[in-house]
Amino acid sequence: MSEIILQTKGLTKEFRGFVAVDDVNLKVRAGTIHALIGPNGAGKTTCFNLLTKFLQPTRGVIYYEGRDITRFAPASVARLGLVRSFQISAVFPHLSVLENVRIALQRKRGNSFDFWRSEEVLRRFDGEAKELLADVGLADYVDLPAAELPYGRKRALEIATTLALNPRMMLLDEPTAGMAHEDVDRIVALIRRIRTGRTILMVEHNLSVVEGLCDTITVLTRGRVLAEGDYATVSKNPEVMAAYLGTADA
To answer: Which residues partner with 34 through β-bridges?
Structure first.
């Protein structure tokens, strides 16, 4: 059995009496791809925000690599190797594809992003940036402004900038949302390539993506864990079929 890299105990978030995440106990094993799925309003994104410290829990504890990170700031969590991408692509639109990855690589110099550094200093990162871009299928786009990338390629760029931070664990928030079929296939293939030596926790609505990629699936509904297991197990669960797939007579 793999070691547990991320764990929550009794994780709860309330908003003025509304319980968005309710006593969630989650265990993510190192080296696996783990999905959070569920209907709209199930608490998936709130749970992600808690794990990456963009929200503080009302109750409960979060452990990363055995360390209590419940009260850590988002930047502190990222420095530990727990890095998140977002549902809406988050890149610098007016910088080139290469420059976007180069900014992320600047972390190797310290904790700040030095936009004012000389071009000569910044170009030291070009080789590594181009390797990352080749890994995500963007080798032909290095000089293109990020704003001009097609949507699917923009998500690939976001994953490249996330990889530049050298995370041990990546949290992907709906990585295939809004994509055409060919882009979905490209991102799925990319996630398969980058999983080596990493753990991935993802929120995803596309069940065919979850089925083909994920080792473990946690199903949330109304903020609580409804079921957990591999795809074959959770897809046959009558409660999951009723809550997630809308099969009322299951």
So the answer is: 201, 216
Residue type, 226: L
List pLDDT tens digits, range 128-162: 999 999 988 899 999 999 999 988 898 889 888 88
How far apart (Å, rounded) are the C-alpha atoms in residues 75 and 206?
A: 30
Residues of the chain with pLDDT under 70: 1-2, 86-90, 107-122, 244-250
Alpha-helix residue ranges (DSSP H) falling in 55-149: 74-79, 97-105, 119-122, 126-135
Is residue 177 one of the residues assigned to a domain?
A: yes
Cα–Cα distance measured from residue 115 to residue 65, given in angstroms and rounded to the nearest whole number: 33
Which of 144, 166, 188 corresponds to the end of one domain? 166
191-221: b or e for each residue (b if 16 or more CB lie within 10 Å)?
A: beebbeebbbbbbbebbebbeebbbbbbbbb
Domain count, the chain: 2
Model confidence pLDDT, tens digit, residues 64-102: 999 999 999 988 998 899 998 864 456 788 999 999 998
3-state SS, residue 199: strand
173 and 153 co-located in one domain: no
